[in-house]
Input
Amino acid sequence: MLDYITSYLSDTVKVTPGQVGNVFWIVVYIFIVFGGVSVAVIAMNWLERKALAHFQIRLGPMRVGPHGLLQPIADALKLFTKEDIIPSAADKLVFWIAPLIILCASFTTYIVVPFGPTHAITDLNIGILFMLGVSSLSVLGVVMAGWASNSHYPLIGALRSSAQMVSYEIAMGLAVVSAVLMTSLNAAGTGTLSMIGIVRAQQAQHVWFLFKFFPLGLIAFVIFAIAMIAETNRAPFDLPEAESELTAGFHTEYSGLRWSLFMLGEYAAMIAVSSIAVTLWLGGWMRPFPNALTGDTWDAVFSLFPGLTFLGLAAICFVGVARMPKHPYFRVQTIGLAGFGAVLGLIGLVLFAPPVRDRIQDIYWFVAKVGVFMYLYIWYRATFPRYRFDQLMKVGWKVLLPIALGVLIATAVWGVLV
Amino acid sequence: MTPVATTFFFYFLAAVTVISGLLVITQRNAVHSALALILSLLGQAALYLMLYAPFVAGVQIILYAGGIMVLFLFVIMLVSIEQQQKEEQFNKLWVVGVLAAVALGGLFVGVYVKGKALFSGPVLPFSEPSNTQQIAVLLYGNYMFAFEIASLLLLVAIIGAVVMAKKRI
Output
């Protein structure tokens, strides 16, 4: 048993646990990834409220914990204890299953997300296809929720949402295909759909696909970046839940825990599509400038980043401690913040240890790139006004789709000529 | 890499596919039928995965479960379910139905009895890691003409649907 567990840890194993078929490590990785995503969703919830508030010159949550750091936990407790209402005219079974489908669809995609060459649950031959397919199942959850509620606003919200998600899926798929096409420009002439294979292709061709065939890669990436916001029903494409028109769209009739499942699924889906974008165009787990700044010195410099990031976060915490009001009322909060800062600093110091540093680097760069996308999501929401439904359809079908088709053809032609 | 609990998974997935397939025709509520059909299609996709055909499984999920069935639901949702549930079944073609079922059943029994002779042992035409590439080579290489004709047919059908649906183009 112990041999079975340690066999994966030997240095000769260079693949994911799923490919080795080591069930123990598959389970461990599933727990790590799903736990990490859940924590990221909680953190994202806090960050979104804080960042949006600062965009609008407000303070945002300030009461629960220092700078509202414990607000997500308070929210979660509130949602758990709230009364769970099912409308009497609702279709009970479908109403009950809908949030679970959205949640399962968005979490299942993480099976193939490559946090590093060995840090993924498994590497499927059809990786990107699997991600697109499973995440497209979340439309079903939206439609079911809207129909089962047996109420007008949810039904209209669900109709809008399914139309929107089905339309933007096409532009998204074409943009993905043009990136997959770029993987086939190697010596053997065969492309790959595997997520790890796509990053390895970028490594082998010494270029992020964002800059490949400039500006074709860039255009495909921009199309994907727009379509992925529409796919996840986020502002400025959040018509399914347009508050001013539809109360809350397809989840109007949901409350308490079930509603929070919708939110969890939505944020998990946002992280999932962002990681598709990072894998396909931004070099996945690779550090910046892997071929311009080469050599052991630069490797060492870039490997210090994870530790430095955590030390920086700890420093921010300590600045917060110093700026806390010196009133007895705030004593617990100050001590708590100092403790949080100390934990972050300790994690930072651990990340400087060479064995940890080498293993954690890939994950750090991947998560950092995904983090940029998550911040962009908030930024868009604070910046852009909501589209009208006909405008949304016009953008999807008459702008994004033709451009995506053109980029796909141009990429193919360029690939043949080069 | 050795398969894990293959027999169990096969019977489990087969049961899911068949039972949800039965639910499709026995549910009175059209939306429930559509949802059962989705479950059945997902079970089929999983069976394709067990046959080491990941690409077909992925396409099955994207196209059928994620695309076509969503459009089905889209339409069914707008139908008034209450009125539909009170309606009697109006087609009386049960003789044809029984004949078709008997014919299909006979075919299945025949395949089951003579299967050993017809199909020689478990063969894996393409290894799982290169499955997608092999399908691409076949579709765009050996059978390109047939493939293009099929896609042209689909295009004609799409244009026809648009022409019929829109009064003014």
